[in-house]
Specification:
The chain is α/β, with parallel strands linked by helices. The chain has helices spanning 3-16, 22-34, 38-44, 51-65, 70-74, 98-107, 123-131, 144-156, 196-201, 215-227, 243-252, and strands at 76-79, 82-85, 113-117, 136-141, 162-165, 176-181, 228-237, 255-262, 268-275. The strands form two sheets. Strands 5-4-3-6-7-9-8 form a seven-stranded mixed β-sheet, with helices on both faces. A two-stranded antiparallel ribbon has the order 1-2. Strand 1 (76-79) and strand 2 (82-85) form a beta hairpin. Helix 1 (3-16) runs parallel beside helix 4 (51-65), helix 2 runs antiparallel to helix 4 and helix 6 runs parallel beside helix 7. The protein is elongated and about 65 Å long. It starts with a helix and ends with a strand. Bound molecules: glutamine.
Length: 276
């Protein structure tokens, strides 16, 4: 079987399984298994695919056909132009979340102490530290397994971040000039309606925002003021329909300059406020 025949067969398998991006995913898996890029492929598509690689490709196609997210198969996802390792203990970094980092990047100053709560893969604080190396960066998560991934990502990107295992603020001490968080924010009742890739494979504890989806904002806002220095920033990623609720909660908790920021699709995506 040639590379070209393998790719055609791969596309067919994924299309039959109802994978929306079947052509792209079949390509990414082939690229991953054979360790080639597009330009190599276009010059050598008639080359034979070694039998062991063909078998491996088949196994990975089967996983993808069963809806395992592509990134959990290849173990990687790019975010803010940086490479991140992922596994099923962490949420796969979303492009939407780049707005959280961009917002922080626009407000942060060198020397600031910045904390990322619910850090997961660490993509938010690691990429902020990459773009603004002069900050002191902390990342925390309740999941030990997630922190292992975050640590590996900081190391791979050659950046130093302090990692703390903590249920929100529970094990944290000190004070910060900026707190960031992309907490779980999907109402429990809506989890069932998510794509199978998300619903069945991504960590439930990274998605489930309890009854109304707002539980983590509520809990973080109870303590954020006490952990922020005067004039400190609090910046949240939110669900597209949570802008009003979360900004009202922030104002009620005494934050000023509260604003909601839209993403590239025009949806509310980030809420930002400042300790008065
Ligand atoms: N944006 C993610 C999704 O739609 C949810 C992320 C989160 O709960 N923090 O799958």
């Amino acid at each position: 079987m040639t590379l070209e025949q393998a790719l055609i067969a791969g596309k067919e398998v994924l299309e039959r399984a109802g994978i929306a991006e079947f052509a792209l995913d079949a390509w990414y898996l082939l690229e991953y298994v054979v360790e080639i890029d597009r330009s190599y492929y276009y010059l050598h598509y008639q080359e034979e695919l070694a039998e062991d690689l063909r078998q491996e490709y088949e196994v990975l196609l089967k996983k993808r056909a069963e809806r395992v997210p592509l990134q959990y198969i290849t173990g990687e996802q790019e975010f803010m132009g940086l490479p991140f390792k992922v596994n099923s203990n962490v949420l796969i970094p979303r492009q939407d979340t780049e707005l959280l980092v961009e917002t922080a990047r626009g407000l942060v100053q060198p020397g600031m102490r910045v904390l990322d709560l619910c850090t997961g893969s660490g993509c938010v604080i690691i990429s902020l530290k990459h773009f603004v190396p002069e900050i002191e960066a902390w990342g925390s998560d309740i999941s030990k397994q997630a922190l292992l991934v975050a640590k590996e990502n900081a190391k791979a990107n050659d950046l130093s971040v302090e990692w703390v295992r903590s249920d929100l603020f529970l094990n944290l001490t000190g004070s910060f000039d900026m707190i960031l968080s992309n907490p779980p924010y999907i109402p429990t009742g809506e989890l069932q309606g998510l794509m199978p890739e998300v619903r069945d494979f991504e960590p439930r504890e990274a998605l489930d925002g309890h009854m109304d989806g707002l539980e983590f904002y509520r809990k973080i806002l109870e303590k954020a003021g006490a952990f922020l220095n005067p004039r400190g920033y609090l910046i949240f990623e939110i669900g597209y329909n949570q802008g009003e609720a979360v900004s009202a909660m922030m104002k009620a908790a005494g934050f000023g300059q509260v604003r909601v920021i839209r993403d590239l699709s025009g949806l509310n995506r980030v809420v930002c406020g400042r300790k008065e």
